[in-house]
Specification:
The structure is a single chain. The chain has seven helices and eleven strands. By secondary structure, the protein is an alpha/beta fold. The longest helix is centred in the C-terminal third of the chain and has 23 residues.
């Protein structure tokens, strides 16, 4: 199974059709803080959607931790089809994810990774076509600088609380997270907004005024 128990597989297909900008508006409509700040796409193309698998790390100066503390491999190995690995590094300019990690996720058919911290080996990751979004790109290794604190627990990524099973969507505009228990409502609102966008675009192509069409639709 590629989705958490009880969640329809159709959610992923629906989410992939919706821009993160539209989803951001829908999240606002529901009073949900789900737009990640400062996290940019570094590789991959097209829009991806998947269910969050989380990892929390602690980062310090080089030598703060032993090599065995750099136990990130367990999280990479645990990724499943259509999952998005979400890593909370406390916004540290240190890499926790590189080419071999990307290869592991690709072989497991994961959707991608979103990291509030650093990644590296962009050439290798780009060649794999995996979507990776991060706060930083850096050659600085996490070995000796970080330790894994937990997996599967709530984390903070781009200022957003993310729990296992939350729906993550990434495109060239940004990254959003939809709480698992609000997915249906947010997707429905986003689809309604997307339809309004299409109607407004039609008015513009017919020579209509943006301001007038937006006022009529109560949408801009």
């Amino acid at each position: 199974m590629t989705e958490p128990a009880g969640l329809p597989a159709a959610y992923l297909d629906r989410a992939k059709k919706l821009a993160t900008a539209t989803l951001g508006d829908a999240l606002d409509a529901h009073g949900i803080a789900g737009v990640m700040s400062g996290i940019a796409r570094r590789s991959g193309s097209g829009r991806i959607a998947g269910y969050a698998q989380t990892m929390l790390e602690q980062v310090g100066p080089f030598g703060s931790f032993e090599f065995k503390d750099f136990a990130v491999g367990g999280a990479f190995d645990a990724t499943t089809q259509d999952s998005v690995l979400v890593v909370d590094m406390g916004a540290a300019d240190v890499s926790t994810f590189g080419g071999l990690a990307a290869l592991t996720l690709t072989l497991r058919k994961a959707a991608g990774a979103v990291i509030d911290g650093g990644c590296r080996d962009l050439e290798e990751i780009a060649n794999l076509g995996l979507t990776v979004a991060s706060r930083f790109v850096t050659p600085r290794t996490g070995k000796g600088r970080l330790r894994v604190v937990s997996r599967g627990e709530p984390v903070t990524c781009g200022g957003v609380c993310v729990r296992e099973g939350d729906l993550i969507i990434v495109d060239d505009t940004g990254c959003v997270a939809i709480p698992q228990d609000r997915i249906a409502a947010v997707l429905q609102t986003a689809e309604d907004l997307d339809q309004r966008d299409a109607i407004l675009a039609g008015h513009l192509r017919d020579g209509g005024s943006f301001a007038q069409a937006a006022a009529k639709l109560k949408h801009a």
